[in-house]
Amino acid sequence: MHSSAGDPSYKSQEDLADVQYLKKLWDEEKGSFFDALAEAKTGVWTYCPPHYRVYMKTLYLDRQDKVITCTYTALDLLSPLINLETSTLKEIEQNGKARIAWSEKVAEANNNRVNVYAFDDDKKASIEVIVPMFGITGQDAESLRIRSLGNRYCSSRHLYVFSEFKAGEQPTGPVRALDELSFDITLEDLWLAGREADVLTEGSYFSKKQLKEMLDKDWVSASLKYLNEVAFNYKAYTAEDDRDGDLKKIIMKELSSYLHIGNEQKLNSAFEISVGGWSAYRYGIFGDSADGKIKLLGIVNRLAEVDYDAKLNGRSRSYYASNNSSIELDEAFENRGNNSHAFWVWVQKEVEDFKSRKWGALSKHISEFIRN
Fold first, then answer.
1. Which of 48-62, 200-214, 235-249 has the lowest mean pLDDT?
2. pLDDT, tens digit, for every residue of 145-182?
3. Measuring CA to CA, how many Å separate 13 from each of 10, 17, 59, 133, 210?
4. How far apart are the first and last CA of the chain?
5. Which residues pair with 18 in a beta bridge?
6. Cβ-contact 72, 57 below 8 angstroms
7. How far apart, in whole angstroms, are the C-alpha atoms of residue 46 and residue 192?
8. pLDDT per residue over 117-145, tens digit each?
9. Residue 195 pLDDT
10. φ, ψ for residue 196 (rounded to 5)?
11. Could you tell me which residues are beta bridge partners of residue 264?
12. In this structure, are strands 130-131 and 155-164 parallel, antiparallel, or unpaired?
C-alpha cells in the first residue's frame, strides 16, 4: 500500500470525530449542518462493516468510455474507511439513512485515528488515501490482460466496492467476477478528521488528546475530572435518542459511583452538567457571543479555571471580563475565598447572567464540584 496524497508539507495523526456528536454541537441558526459537513476538506467517512472486504474495481473503457471488462483486486486493510459523496450526505439528511455500494476513495484508520496530510501552498488537507501496490506477478498479469483487449482498450477507471469476507476463500490476485454488496449507514456511522471537527464547531469539539491535556491541569478537581470523562464517553447522548431512559440510568449509575453522590438532586445536576443539551451564547468571563455558545460543562470548567488562575496570579475579575463588570460581581469575586457559602454566591451571580434558565440549586452543586 502507498499514499496517493502526493508530497505533503507535513503529516499528522488525528482523532476521528463522531459526526453525530458534532451535530449536537451545531448551532441551527447557521443553517444546514449537512451543507457545512459537505465542505470538509478531508471529506466525510464511514467504516466498512467488519464482515465485508474492500476491493479495487478496475473498469477498462473503450474510446467511447464504454466498459469493455473489469477486474477486482482485494485490499489488505485492517480498518478501512470509506469516503462519502455529497449526495450520500444529502440522502441521510432527507431520509435518515443511505446505502453505500461503492466509493472513489478508501483510507485506513488505526485505533480510531487517521493520517492527515497538509499542504502549505494552498492550505489544503487530505486524508491519506490508500491504493494497492501490486507485486510483480500482479503487474505482469494486468499487462497481459490489457494487451488482450487489443485496440479497443483506451483508458481505465478505479472504484472501491465491497464483498463478503470469507476466511480462507479470499483471492490472492485480480479476479474478473465478484459478488458486489452494499450496506446502509446513518448519521451515527459518520466520521470526520479532528481538524475538520474543530472548524465545523468553531472550537467546541473536544478530542481525546484535548481531554487528557485538560485533565492534567492543576485547576481540575476530582469531581470535575469525572464529569468531563463521563461527558466525553457519552458525548453523543441526546434525550430524544434515549426515550426509554435506559442509557440515562447507566450514566446516572456511573456518576453516582464516581462522585459518591447519594443526593438525587445533586445527581441530577451532575447528569445535566455532563451530558445535558442546554447551551447559551457566551457572556462575561465565559467569552463573547461572537465566540459561539457554551454548554453547562464549559461554564463549570471556566469557573474553575478562572478561580485557580486568579488565586495564583492575584488577578481581579476585570482581567477576565473587562466589558462585563459591576460592583456586585466584583465584590462576590473578591470574597469567594472566604468560605464555601461565599464561593457559592460568586458562582450563582456569574451563572445568573445567562437568563435563559433558572439556576436554583444547580449553582450550589456547581460550586461543590469545583471545590471537591
1. 200-214
2. 444 555 566 777 888 999 987 766 666 678 888 899 99
3. 10, 13, 33, 22, 14
4. 51
5. 191
6. yes
7. 9
8. 877 655 678 888 887 654 333 443 444 34
9. 87
10. -70, -40
11. none
12. unpaired
